[in-house]
Amino acid sequence: MTVEDVRQRAAGPGAEPTRSFWLDLLGAEVRFRDAGGHLTRSIEAGAGEPVVLLHGISGHAETWVRTVTPLAQGFRVHALDMLGHGFTAKPALDYSVQALGQHVLGFLDTIGARRAHLVGQSLGGWVAAWLAIHHPDRVASLVSATGAGLELTEDGADLTARVGRKVGDATRKALDEPTRDKVRTRLEWLMHDPTVVTQELVETRLHIYTRPDFATVAGRLVEAFTAHPRPDELLTAERLARISSPTLVLWTRQNPTMPWQVGEAASRIIPGASFYLMEDAGHWPQFEKPAEFLEVVGGFLRSVAGCTDVADGIV
Protein backbone atom coordinates (compact mmCIF):
# COMPACT_ATOMS: atom_id res chain seq x y z
CA MET A 1 0.00 0.00 0.00
CA THR A 2 1.37 3.42 -0.95
CA VAL A 3 1.32 6.55 1.18
CA GLU A 4 -1.36 7.96 -1.15
CA ASP A 5 -3.49 4.85 -0.50
CA VAL A 6 -3.16 5.45 3.23
CA ARG A 7 -4.19 9.09 2.79
CA GLN A 8 -7.23 8.12 0.74
CA ARG A 9 -8.33 5.45 3.23
CA ALA A 10 -7.97 7.92 6.10
CA ALA A 11 -10.05 10.49 4.26
CA GLY A 12 -12.86 8.07 3.46
CA PRO A 13 -14.62 7.05 0.22
CA GLY A 14 -15.00 9.86 -2.27
CA ALA A 15 -13.09 12.35 -0.14
CA GLU A 16 -9.96 14.24 -1.15
CA PRO A 17 -6.84 12.55 0.29
CA THR A 18 -5.48 14.27 3.39
CA ARG A 19 -1.91 15.54 3.51
CA SER A 20 -0.90 14.89 7.10
CA PHE A 21 2.59 15.35 8.49
CA TRP A 22 2.22 11.93 10.13
CA LEU A 23 1.63 10.25 6.80
CA ASP A 24 4.42 12.17 5.09
CA LEU A 25 6.83 11.12 7.82
CA LEU A 26 5.95 7.44 8.10
CA GLY A 27 9.26 5.66 8.62
CA ALA A 28 11.06 8.73 10.02
CA GLU A 29 12.08 9.36 13.61
CA VAL A 30 12.43 12.40 15.86
CA ARG A 31 15.78 12.63 17.65
CA PHE A 32 17.18 14.94 20.33
CA ARG A 33 20.97 15.21 20.56
CA ASP A 34 23.61 17.41 22.13
CA ALA A 35 25.17 19.42 19.30
CA GLY A 36 27.97 21.68 20.47
CA GLY A 37 26.42 21.86 23.93
CA HIS A 38 22.91 22.63 22.64
CA LEU A 39 19.96 20.24 22.79
CA THR A 40 18.99 19.83 19.14
CA ARG A 41 15.91 18.30 17.53
CA SER A 42 16.04 16.59 14.17
CA ILE A 43 13.66 14.56 12.02
CA GLU A 44 15.59 11.73 10.38
CA ALA A 45 15.21 8.81 8.01
CA GLY A 46 17.18 6.58 5.68
CA ALA A 47 20.74 5.35 5.38
CA GLY A 48 23.76 6.45 3.41
CA GLU A 49 25.64 9.69 2.98
CA PRO A 50 24.30 12.40 5.34
CA VAL A 51 22.04 15.11 3.98
CA VAL A 52 21.25 17.98 6.37
CA LEU A 53 18.17 20.14 5.68
CA LEU A 54 18.16 23.70 7.04
CA HIS A 55 15.00 25.84 7.29
CA GLY A 56 14.38 29.59 7.11
CA ILE A 57 13.98 32.30 9.74
CA SER A 58 11.45 31.45 12.47
CA GLY A 59 11.09 28.04 10.82
CA HIS A 60 11.48 24.47 12.04
CA ALA A 61 12.13 20.96 10.79
CA GLU A 62 8.55 20.57 9.51
CA THR A 63 9.56 22.91 6.69
CA TRP A 64 10.90 19.70 5.10
CA VAL A 65 8.01 17.39 6.00
CA ARG A 66 7.34 16.53 2.34
CA THR A 67 10.95 15.82 1.42
CA VAL A 68 12.52 13.87 4.31
CA THR A 69 11.36 10.34 3.54
CA PRO A 70 11.60 10.57 -0.27
CA LEU A 71 15.22 11.81 -0.04
CA ALA A 72 15.87 9.06 2.49
CA GLN A 73 15.57 6.46 -0.28
CA GLY A 74 19.25 7.05 -0.98
CA PHE A 75 20.62 9.07 1.95
CA ARG A 76 20.55 9.50 5.70
CA VAL A 77 18.46 12.66 5.96
CA HIS A 78 18.48 15.01 8.96
CA ALA A 79 16.00 17.92 9.02
CA LEU A 80 17.15 20.21 11.83
CA ASP A 81 15.62 22.76 14.09
CA MET A 82 18.47 25.26 13.86
CA LEU A 83 19.80 27.01 16.95
CA GLY A 84 17.15 29.30 18.46
CA HIS A 85 14.34 27.64 16.49
CA GLY A 86 11.67 24.99 16.92
CA PHE A 87 12.44 22.62 19.79
CA THR A 88 16.21 23.17 19.71
CA ALA A 89 17.92 25.13 22.50
CA LYS A 90 17.50 28.91 22.46
CA PRO A 91 20.46 30.43 24.28
CA ALA A 92 20.53 34.15 25.01
CA LEU A 93 23.22 35.19 22.56
CA ASP A 94 23.77 37.56 19.66
CA TYR A 95 22.45 35.41 16.83
CA SER A 96 24.45 35.35 13.63
CA VAL A 97 24.98 33.18 10.58
CA GLN A 98 28.27 32.09 12.13
CA ALA A 99 26.52 30.98 15.35
CA LEU A 100 24.00 28.93 13.36
CA GLY A 101 26.78 27.52 11.19
CA GLN A 102 28.85 26.48 14.18
CA HIS A 103 25.78 24.73 15.58
CA VAL A 104 25.44 22.75 12.33
CA LEU A 105 29.11 21.78 12.59
CA GLY A 106 28.45 20.61 16.15
CA PHE A 107 25.60 18.48 14.85
CA LEU A 108 27.86 16.91 12.20
CA ASP A 109 30.38 16.11 14.91
CA THR A 110 27.66 14.53 17.04
CA ILE A 111 26.44 12.21 14.27
CA GLY A 112 29.99 11.32 13.28
CA ALA A 113 29.84 12.90 9.83
CA ARG A 114 33.10 14.37 8.57
CA ARG A 115 31.19 15.94 5.67
CA ALA A 116 27.55 16.28 4.65
CA HIS A 117 25.40 17.43 1.77
CA LEU A 118 23.71 20.67 2.90
CA VAL A 119 20.30 21.68 1.55
CA GLY A 120 19.25 25.09 2.84
CA GLN A 121 16.15 27.14 2.19
CA SER A 122 16.07 30.93 2.81
CA LEU A 123 18.12 31.54 6.01
CA GLY A 124 19.14 27.89 5.80
CA GLY A 125 20.62 28.54 2.36
CA TRP A 126 22.59 31.46 3.81
CA VAL A 127 23.95 29.28 6.62
CA ALA A 128 24.79 26.45 4.22
CA ALA A 129 26.64 28.82 1.87
CA TRP A 130 28.55 30.35 4.81
CA LEU A 131 29.69 26.85 5.77
CA ALA A 132 30.72 26.09 2.19
CA ILE A 133 32.83 29.27 2.17
CA HIS A 134 34.42 28.97 5.61
CA HIS A 135 34.44 25.20 6.18
CA PRO A 136 34.66 23.62 2.71
CA ASP A 137 36.11 20.45 4.19
CA ARG A 138 32.77 19.78 5.92
CA VAL A 139 30.50 20.37 2.91
CA ALA A 140 30.14 17.55 0.37
CA SER A 141 27.70 19.59 -1.72
CA LEU A 142 25.49 22.65 -1.41
CA VAL A 143 21.89 23.30 -2.43
CA SER A 144 20.57 26.83 -1.86
CA ALA A 145 16.81 27.13 -2.41
CA THR A 146 15.51 30.74 -2.45
CA GLY A 147 18.50 31.44 -0.22
CA ALA A 148 18.93 34.59 1.85
CA GLY A 149 21.97 36.79 2.44
CA LEU A 150 22.94 37.55 -1.17
CA GLU A 151 24.49 40.95 -1.88
CA LEU A 152 26.24 40.65 -5.21
CA THR A 153 26.79 44.20 -6.45
CA GLU A 154 27.83 47.58 -5.06
CA ASP A 155 24.22 48.76 -5.10
CA GLY A 156 22.97 45.47 -3.70
CA ALA A 157 22.77 46.89 -0.18
CA ASP A 158 19.54 48.71 -1.08
CA LEU A 159 17.94 45.49 -2.32
CA THR A 160 19.18 43.62 0.75
CA ALA A 161 17.62 46.26 3.00
CA ARG A 162 14.29 46.22 1.12
CA VAL A 163 14.06 42.44 1.23
CA GLY A 164 15.05 42.43 4.89
CA ARG A 165 12.30 44.91 5.75
CA LYS A 166 9.75 42.86 3.84
CA VAL A 167 10.68 39.62 5.59
CA GLY A 168 11.04 41.30 8.96
CA ASP A 169 7.67 43.04 8.76
CA ALA A 170 5.87 39.85 7.72
CA THR A 171 7.53 37.86 10.49
CA ARG A 172 6.97 40.44 13.24
CA LYS A 173 3.26 40.62 12.44
CA ALA A 174 2.97 36.89 13.05
CA LEU A 175 5.13 36.92 16.19
CA ASP A 176 3.36 39.86 17.86
CA GLU A 177 0.81 38.07 20.07
CA PRO A 178 0.50 35.22 17.58
CA THR A 179 -2.91 33.90 16.57
CA ARG A 180 -3.99 31.30 14.03
CA ASP A 181 -4.98 34.02 11.58
CA LYS A 182 -1.63 35.83 11.93
CA VAL A 183 0.33 32.62 11.50
CA ARG A 184 -1.74 31.58 8.50
CA THR A 185 -1.18 34.98 6.88
CA ARG A 186 2.58 34.63 7.37
CA LEU A 187 2.60 31.13 5.88
CA GLU A 188 0.38 32.07 2.95
CA TRP A 189 2.75 34.95 2.18
CA LEU A 190 5.44 32.33 1.59
CA MET A 191 3.43 30.49 -1.07
CA HIS A 192 2.46 31.21 -4.65
CA ASP A 193 -0.69 29.13 -4.05
CA PRO A 194 -1.90 29.93 -0.51
CA THR A 195 -4.27 26.94 -0.53
CA VAL A 196 -1.31 24.62 0.08
CA VAL A 197 -1.09 25.94 3.65
CA THR A 198 -2.76 23.27 5.77
CA GLN A 199 -4.37 23.73 9.15
CA GLU A 200 -1.85 21.25 10.53
CA LEU A 201 1.00 23.49 9.39
CA VAL A 202 -0.69 26.51 10.98
CA GLU A 203 -1.19 24.67 14.27
CA THR A 204 2.41 23.43 14.28
CA ARG A 205 3.86 26.88 13.78
CA LEU A 206 1.45 28.48 16.22
CA HIS A 207 2.51 25.97 18.87
CA ILE A 208 6.16 26.87 18.31
CA TYR A 209 5.52 30.62 18.17
CA THR A 210 3.67 30.54 21.50
CA ARG A 211 6.38 28.60 23.36
CA PRO A 212 7.87 30.83 26.09
CA ASP A 213 11.43 29.91 25.13
CA PHE A 214 10.87 31.00 21.52
CA ALA A 215 9.28 34.28 22.62
CA THR A 216 12.48 35.17 24.47
CA VAL A 217 14.66 34.96 21.33
CA ALA A 218 12.26 35.66 18.45
CA GLY A 219 13.01 39.38 18.37
CA ARG A 220 16.76 38.73 18.37
CA LEU A 221 16.41 36.36 15.42
CA VAL A 222 14.37 38.78 13.34
CA GLU A 223 16.70 41.69 14.02
CA ALA A 224 19.85 39.68 13.37
CA PHE A 225 18.84 38.31 9.99
CA THR A 226 16.53 40.96 8.53
CA ALA A 227 17.26 44.37 10.05
CA HIS A 228 20.94 44.21 10.98
CA PRO A 229 22.77 41.44 9.11
CA ARG A 230 26.49 41.42 9.75
CA PRO A 231 28.35 42.82 6.73
CA ASP A 232 31.09 40.20 7.07
CA GLU A 233 28.48 37.44 6.78
CA LEU A 234 26.72 38.66 3.64
CA LEU A 235 27.15 36.50 0.54
CA THR A 236 29.05 38.87 -1.71
CA ALA A 237 30.34 37.97 -5.15
CA GLU A 238 33.89 37.71 -3.78
CA ARG A 239 32.82 35.25 -1.09
CA LEU A 240 30.61 33.15 -3.37
CA ALA A 241 33.52 32.78 -5.78
CA ARG A 242 35.39 30.90 -3.03
CA ILE A 243 32.84 28.07 -2.89
CA SER A 244 34.43 24.85 -4.12
CA SER A 245 31.65 22.36 -3.28
CA PRO A 246 29.36 21.08 -6.05
CA THR A 247 26.45 23.55 -5.92
CA LEU A 248 22.86 23.82 -7.08
CA VAL A 249 21.04 27.15 -6.80
CA LEU A 250 17.27 26.67 -7.01
CA TRP A 251 14.91 29.62 -7.24
CA THR A 252 11.26 30.28 -8.01
CA ARG A 253 9.88 32.86 -10.38
CA GLN A 254 7.29 33.94 -7.79
CA ASN A 255 9.62 34.10 -4.79
CA PRO A 256 8.33 36.95 -2.56
CA THR A 257 11.79 37.86 -1.23
CA MET A 258 14.94 38.05 -3.36
CA PRO A 259 14.18 38.09 -7.14
CA TRP A 260 15.13 35.02 -9.13
CA GLN A 261 17.56 37.04 -11.25
CA VAL A 262 19.76 37.47 -8.16
CA GLY A 263 19.79 33.72 -7.58
CA GLU A 264 20.72 33.13 -11.20
CA ALA A 265 23.52 35.69 -10.94
CA ALA A 266 24.82 33.93 -7.82
CA SER A 267 24.92 30.63 -9.71
CA ARG A 268 27.10 32.20 -12.38
CA ILE A 269 29.58 33.39 -9.73
CA ILE A 270 29.90 30.09 -7.83
CA PRO A 271 32.40 27.97 -9.79
CA GLY A 272 30.65 25.16 -11.65
CA ALA A 273 27.24 25.80 -10.04
CA SER A 274 23.95 24.78 -11.66
CA PHE A 275 20.78 26.87 -11.65
CA TYR A 276 17.15 25.77 -11.74
CA LEU A 277 14.15 28.10 -11.95
CA MET A 278 10.83 26.68 -10.77
CA GLU A 279 7.56 28.08 -12.05
CA ASP A 280 4.38 28.63 -10.02
CA ALA A 281 5.98 28.41 -6.59
CA GLY A 282 6.87 30.89 -3.85
CA HIS A 283 9.41 30.86 -1.05
CA TRP A 284 8.88 27.22 0.01
CA PRO A 285 9.30 25.18 -3.20
CA GLN A 286 10.05 22.07 -1.14
CA PHE A 287 6.58 22.27 0.42
CA GLU A 288 4.57 23.82 -2.40
CA LYS A 289 5.87 21.64 -5.27
CA PRO A 290 7.61 18.72 -3.56
CA ALA A 291 7.58 16.36 -6.55
CA GLU A 292 9.46 18.80 -8.79
CA PHE A 293 11.75 19.84 -5.94
CA LEU A 294 12.64 16.23 -5.22
CA GLU A 295 13.26 15.45 -8.88
CA VAL A 296 15.70 18.35 -9.20
CA VAL A 297 17.40 18.25 -5.80
CA GLY A 298 17.37 14.47 -5.53
CA GLY A 299 18.88 14.19 -9.00
CA PHE A 300 21.62 16.66 -8.08
CA LEU A 301 22.45 14.86 -4.83
CA ARG A 302 22.58 11.49 -6.57
CA SER A 303 24.87 12.94 -9.23
CA VAL A 304 27.43 14.12 -6.66
CA ALA A 305 27.05 11.37 -4.04
CA GLY A 306 30.02 9.07 -3.70
CA CYS A 307 32.30 11.53 -5.45
CA THR A 308 33.91 12.48 -2.13
CA ASP A 309 34.80 10.62 1.04
CA VAL A 310 31.76 11.21 3.25
CA ALA A 311 30.98 9.49 6.56
CA ASP A 312 27.58 7.82 6.58
CA GLY A 313 26.36 9.87 9.56
CA ILE A 314 24.46 7.03 11.20
CA VAL A 315 24.75 6.68 14.96
Task: Describe what this molecule looks like in 3D.
With 315 residues, the protein is an alpha/beta fold. It has a single domain (17-304), classed as 3-Layer(aba) Sandwich (Rossmann fold), CATH 3.40.50.1820. It contains 13 helices and eight strands. It has helices at 3-11, 21-24, 68-71, 97-111, 123-134, 156-175, 180-190, 199-209, 212-227, 237-240, 260-269, 285-288, 290-304, and strands at residues 29-35, 38-46, 50-54, 76-80, 116-121, 139-145, 247-252, 274-278. Strands 1-2-4-3-5-6-7-8 form an eight-stranded mixed β-sheet, with helices on both faces. Helix 4 crosses helix 5 (123-134), helix 6 runs antiparallel to helix 7 (180-190) and helix 7 (180-190) crosses helix 8. The chain starts with a helix and ends in an 11-residue tail after the last helix. Residues 1-16 and 308-315 have low confidence and may be disordered. InterPro entries: AB_hydrolase_1 (IPR000073), AB_hydrolase_fold (IPR029058), Epox_hydrolase-like (IPR000639). This is Alpha/beta fold hydrolase. Residues 50-290 form the AB hydrolase-1 domain. Keywords: Hydrolase. It comes from Pseudonocardia acidicola.
Give me some keywords for this one.
globular; Rossmann fold; 315 residues; alpha/beta; disordered C terminus; 8-stranded mixed β-sheet; 8 strands; disordered N terminus
SSE topology sketch:
Elements: H1 3-11, H2 21-24, E1 29-35, E2 38-46, E3 50-54, H3 68-71, E4 76-80, H4 97-111, E5 116-121, H5 123-134, E6 139-145, H6 156-175, H7 180-190, H8 199-209, H9 212-227, H10 237-240, E7 247-252, H11 260-269, E8 274-278, H12 285-288, H13 290-304
Parallel strand pairs: 3-4, 3-5, 5-6, 6-7, 7-8
Antiparallel strand pairs: 1-2, 2-4
Helix pairs in contact: 4-5, 6-7, 6-9, 7-8
